[in-house]
């Protein structure tokens, strides 16, 4: 899955603005529009929020020769126009092309560097998993670096979501595992931070089920394992790892104990997010501008431990769907918290330590951007939503649904 048609953009900050008629469900924090800027052609791919330092970290893979930075940060409390700020941390080696960022419970920023740029004259080296200490507020020193063996990554430009599993934060941070998806190779890289070892896993459930087509757009792609998110910890520090292929609607899960102990990879098929052909909801106008095509393919999702809800960004349905994981994977426990007809693609989602859902959203088809007034419709947005408020009145909160 590649996004290679882009245009110059610049960052505009605006005060929190609700974009849902359901109270204050979803708010715009930042948006990008056309214009000449010092961040020309820096296209965000992943975001992570640090609640203590009130910063958003943004991964920007180098897909253009003109990329000026590959890891940026933004102060989330600024009330004035703001451009990307180059990452203020101190890596021991220059970044090549950053694809993923995650902030964990131990105040560490984990960075996935592909080790090679899609375009541009940059040094080539192994992909690397790098950690920075966010407790040191001034310079964020690098505290860990692990290079992934070359034989595990044939296509580093197709890294997808990364999940960080701190087994028991109250007992220390060394025992950490990281799970990384590669959607072209249909593989998962598992990194054991304590032992400084890694391995590569493949499974038939990682395979794409079909070619995905974003309706009303010319984007077509075929992607395997794309998004991984972690559920609640049990008494032993084990969790359920939920995952989805980018082209397909099946949701799978496996206990991280099996992954960490190198047991046979035998996942559970939770269910299919696709609506059956005879479903009355398949072509129903669900709410306001939202409608369902029946093609619920998605490339990003996030689990919230406070509400025990799994959120999924569904571009064809132009909505954020939700599932109350304490219940069965049925319509009685699934709903949507927000919909908007301008949604083109949900690129990334994450939930921070305070229960805020952050979404990186591409608005409208990139090929159509030049036809529209940049002063009217932003092109790329960062959204935020309080998860406990967002699920209010939906089946994910066991209340009466406003959608179904």
Task: Note down, in words, how this protein is organized.
The protein is mainly β and 404 residues long. The protein has 2 domains: 25-33 and 206-397, Neuraminidase (6 Propeller); 37-202, Neuraminidase. Helices cover 2% and strands 39% of the residues. The chain has helices at 256-260, 387-390, and strands spanning 10-18, 27-33, 46-50, 55-59, 71-75, 85-86, 98-103, 108-113, 128-133, 142-147, 159-166, 176-182, 187-192, 197-202, 212-213, 220-221, 225-230, 240-245, 250-255, 268-272, 301-304, 309-314, 319-324, 334-339, 343-351, 356-363, 380-386. The strands form 7 sheets. Strands 1-2-27-26-25 form a 5-stranded antiparallel β-sheet. It has a 4-stranded antiparallel β-sheet with strand order 3-4-5-6, with no helix packed on it. Strands 7-8-9-10 form a 4-stranded antiparallel β-sheet, with no helix packed on it. Strand 15 (212-213) and strand 16 (220-221) form a beta hairpin. The longest helix has 5 residues, at 256-260. The two termini are 32 Å apart.
